[in-house]
Amino acid sequence: MLEKLMIAGGRPLRGTVQISGAKNSAVALIPAAILAETTVTLDNLPHLSDVAIYTEILTDLGASIEWSGDQMVIDPSRMKSIPMPNGKVKKLRASYYLMGALLGRFGEATIGLPGGCNFEPRPIDLHIKGFEALGAEVSNENGALRIRAKQRLRGAKIYLDMVSVGATINIMLAAARAKGSTLIENAAKEPEIIDVATLLNAMGAKIIGAGTETIRIEGVDSLHGCRHSIIPDRIQAGTYMIAAAATRGDVIVDNVIPKHMEAVTAKLQEMGVHIYEMDESIRVVGQPEYESVDVKALVYPGFATDLQSPMASLLCQARGVSILTDYVYSNRFKHIPELVRMGAKMKVEGRSAIIEGSFLSSAKVKATDLRAGASLVIAGLSVAFGGVTEVTGVEFIDRGYENLVTNLSALGAEVWREREE
Ligand SMILES: CC(=O)N[C@H]1[C@@H](OP(=O)(O)OP(=O)(O)OC[C@H]2O[C@@H](n3ccc(=O)[nH]c3=O)[C@H](O)[C@@H]2O)O[C@H](CO)[C@@H](O)[C@@H]1O
Ligand SMILES: C=C(OP(=O)(O)O)C(=O)O
C-alpha cells in the first residue's frame, strides 16, 4: 500500500530527537558479517526498509538472523554463495557489498546489478577493477555480475581513480581474507568506512588506515564473530539540524558524533544559525533571518552529497542568492523542480543549483529519491501560512529515516501519513 506524507507547516520544531544507527554503515556491516565463521551481533541497527531487505537476502543465502529492537544477531556459518541475478538485490544500491563479501568468503558471487535511488547513473567500474586486481574474473551475464576467483584472492595495490565509498568498502571486504597485503590508495575517508574497518578488525581482520586516503589490509585466513555498535547516522542528524533551522526551531539532536557534523555545522553557522555542541548531541537554534551561503558537496570531510537536497530547502529561506554545487553527483537535483512548485526561486545550472530567497507555499509534490524526499519534508515543515503539503514517494523516504512521523510529531510538527489513492 502506497502512502503519502501530509504536512501542515509553520510550526517551529522544538525538543529532542534521538538519532538511530547509520543506514549507510548498516548496509555494509550486515554483508560484512558474511565473512565471519561464527555469530556477529550488531547493535544500534536502524529499522529501515534497506535493512529489512538485506535481512531477507542473507536469510535466502542461508544465514540465520534474529532481529529484535535495535540488535541483530547474524549466524553466517551455514551460508552459501547462491547466485542472485534478480529479485531483492535489485531493490537497493548497497546490495553491491554482497559482491565483495561473498567473493571474500567463498571466492565467488553472482549478483544482479544494484538498484537503489537512481538520481543519476551510479557506476561500479572501480569495484570491478578492485576485484580484478585481487585476482577475480568478472563478467556481465544478462545484467548480473559473475565474479570468480580460481584460487585464493591475493593482495594487490589498488589506486582508485575517483574517491568512492562503495569501492573502498567492497575492496576491504574482498581483501580481508585474501593472501597477503592489499593497499587501497585514494581511498574514501567517510566515517562509515571506519565503521566497517572497526567491525572487520573486531572479527580478526588486520586493517589499518581506514579514515585516511591509504588503507592497508593484511589478509587473514579466517574471521570470527564479534559484537559491534553502529555509528550514529550523520545524514539523519544533519537532516534534523537543517529542519530545526528551517522552521526557526530549537532542537537538540541527540546520539550524534559532533565531529561527523562539522561541515553542516559550519555552513549553518555561516548562515546565522546558532549551534551548541555537546559530547554526543548538538543543539540547533533557528533565527528569524539567514544569510545566503555557497555550499559545495564533496567527499568527506566535505559537505555530504546526501545533505545537498535537504540544504536546498533551507537555502531558499536565506536573504540573497546561494549557490549549491554537488561535486560528487553532478545531476542530483530532482528535488529542485518540486521545490519550485512550492514557490522556491531556484534553477539548475550545470552541477549547481542557484537559489534565491523566497516564500514557500504548500503544494502536492513527489519524492523521487530518498534525500529529495527529505528536502520536500523540510520545505513542507517550513511553509509559514496555511495549507497542507502532500509528499508522495514516501517509500523512498522510508529507506533512510526511522520513525520520521513519530519524531517530527514529538518535536511539535503537524505531520501524518495517508493512504495514496
Ligand atoms: C564520496 C561520497 O560522497 N559518496 C556518497 C555516495 O556513495 P556511493 O557509494 O553511492 O558513491 P561513491 O562514493 O562510490 O561514488 C562517488 C563518485 O564516484 C563515482 N564512481 C563510484 C564508483 C565507481 O565504481 N565508479 C565511479 O565513477 C560515482 O558516480 C560518484 O560520482 O552516495 C552515498 C549515498 O548517497 C553516500 O552515502 C556517500 O557518502
Ligand atoms: C541515496 C542514498 O542511498 P543509496 O546509495 O543506498 O541509494 C542515500 O543514502 O542518500
TrEMBL record:
CDD domains in alphabetical order: UdpNAET
Enzyme class: transferase
GO terms of molecular function: UDP-N-acetylglucosamine 1-carboxyvinyltransferase activity
Keywords: Cell cycle, Cell division, Cell shape, Cell wall biogenesis/degradation, Cytoplasm, Peptidoglycan synthesis, Pyruvate, Transferase
Binding residue positions for UDP-N-acetyl-alpha-D-glucosamine: R93, R122, P123, I124, D125, L126, D306, V328
EC number assigned by the record: 2.5.1.7
Function text: Cell wall formation. Adds enolpyruvyl to UDP-N-acetylglucosamine.
Protein name: UDP-N-acetylglucosamine 1-carboxyvinyltransferase
Organism: Paenibacillus eucommiae
Protein's gene: murA
